[in-house]
């Protein structure tokens, strides 16, 4: 199992799909799995709160057992998920503030970035999680200024050396 972790908008969902294809294996996204069964992330947060979303995230990750899995940026917060991810290979995509600012402009899908202070929220949330991403990572790629293909090549190169 390969898991992608990292802050919101670092490209976990996008790179994960491409990586799965390069490895000729399946791809799944824990957020997409949750949305398929429970409605949009914004709805879940608004109606039941973040804690409930985290419970659904634990369930979704437990059920995804093959190939490449893109996690949501906050999945690493739960101890159960940290243990699950540790049993697989973990790829951490690091993203800088300037690139994040571009990517989250006009974002309507991430409740934690709602409002006028999206970049500040992104920074604050990332700072709380950075140490956990670093602790879990088997492979660590800084993605700023790189194409999806370049990132996949870099990941494949690092996987070869594990
Ligand atoms: N290497 C990249 N270069 C430019 N844009 C990217 C790259 N990777 C992802 N994106 C874009 O950034 C946004 C966030 O990507 P996404 O895969 O949803 O990130 P995550 O799943 O980590 O939140 C999307 O609009 C996506 O198209
Ligand atoms: O960082 C987070 O807490 C979240 C990240 C999102 O996924 P992406 O990292 O794919 O944006 C999604 O799971 C939800 O909005 C919460
Ligand atoms: Mg995603």
Automatic annotation (TrEMBL):
Compartments (UniProt record): Cytoplasm
Root EC class: transferase
Cofactor(s) named in the record: Mg(2+)
SUPFAM superfamilies membership: P-loop containing nucleoside triphosphate hydrolases
Residue sites binding ATP per the record: 9-14, 110
Binding site for Mg(2+): 13
Gene Ontology molecular function, alphabetical: ATP binding; magnesium ion binding; shikimate kinase activity
Residues making up the signal peptide according to the UniProt record: none
One GO BP annotation of this record: amino acid biosynthetic process
CDD domains given in the database record: SK
Database matches in InterPro entries: P-loop_NTPase, Shikimate/glucono_kinase, Shikimate_kinase/TSH1
Substrates-to-products reaction catalysed: shikimate + ATP = 3-phosphoshikimate + ADP + H(+)
This protein's UniProt keywords: Amino-acid biosynthesis, Aromatic amino acid biosynthesis, ATP-binding, Cytoplasm, Kinase, Magnesium, Metal-binding, Nucleotide-binding, Transferase
EC number: 2.7.1.71
Pathway recorded for this protein: Metabolic intermediate biosynthesis; chorismate biosynthesis; chorismate from D-erythrose 4-phosphate and phosphoenolpyruvate: step 5/7
Any Pfam family hit: SKI
Record keyword Cytoplasm present: yes
Quaternary structure (record): Monomer.
Similarity-based family: Belongs to the shikimate kinase family.
HAMAP family, per the entry: Shikimate_kinase
Its job: Catalyzes the specific phosphorylation of the 3-hydroxyl group of shikimic acid using ATP as a cosubstrate.
Protein name: Shikimate kinase
Origin species: Glutamicibacter arilaitensis
Origin organism lineage: Bacteria, Bacillati, Actinomycetota, Actinomycetes, Micrococcales
């Amino acid at each position: 199992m390969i898991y992608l972790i990292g802050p919101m908008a670092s490209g976990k969902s996008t790179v994960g799909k491409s990586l799965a294809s390069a490895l000729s294996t399946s791809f799944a996204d824990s957020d997409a799995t949750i949305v398929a069964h429970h409605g949009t992330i914004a709805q879940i947060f608004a109606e039941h709160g973040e804690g409930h979303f985290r419970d659904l995230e634990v369930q979704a990750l437990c059920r995804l057992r093959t190939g490449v899995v893109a996690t949501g940026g906050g999945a690493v917060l739960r101890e159960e998920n940290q243990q699950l991810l540790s049993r697989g290979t973990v790829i951490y995509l690091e993203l800088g503030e300037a690139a994040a600012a571009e990517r989250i402009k006009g974002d309507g899908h991430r409740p934690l970035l709602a409002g006028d202070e999206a970049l500040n929220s992104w920074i604050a949330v990332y700072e709380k999680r950075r140490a956990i991403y670093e602790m879990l990572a088997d492979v660590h790629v800084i993605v700023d200024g790189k194409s999806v293909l370049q990132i996949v090549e870099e990941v494949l190169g690092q996987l070869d050396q594990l």
